[in-house]
Amino acid sequence: MKKLMAMLIACALLLGAFALAQKEGVSLSFVRIGNDEAERSYWQWVIDQFETAHPDIHIEYDEKAIGDPMDSALNTRFATGDGYDIIGHGILSVAQRVEAGQYMAIDEYFDSWEGKSDIMPAVLANGTYQDHVYGLGYSVTPYVFAYRIDLLEEAGIAVPTTWEELADAARELTRVNDSGEVEFSGFCYPTTGGNLVELDVFVYGNGGRYIEDGTPVFADNGEVKGALEFLGELLPDTNLTYSSNEVNPFVSGSAAMTLINNAALTTMLNNPEYAGKVGIALPPNNGTPASFCGCNMLFIGSTCQHPDEAFEFISFALSVDSCLKRAEMVRIPVTRQSLVEAYAQMDEWNEARSLCVAYGTGMPRVTWSTAFQTVRNELSQSVLFGGADVDAALAKAQEDIEFRMGN
Question: Which CATH superfamily is domain 27-141+294-361 in?
Answer without folding.
Answer: Periplasmic binding protein-like II (3.40.190.10)
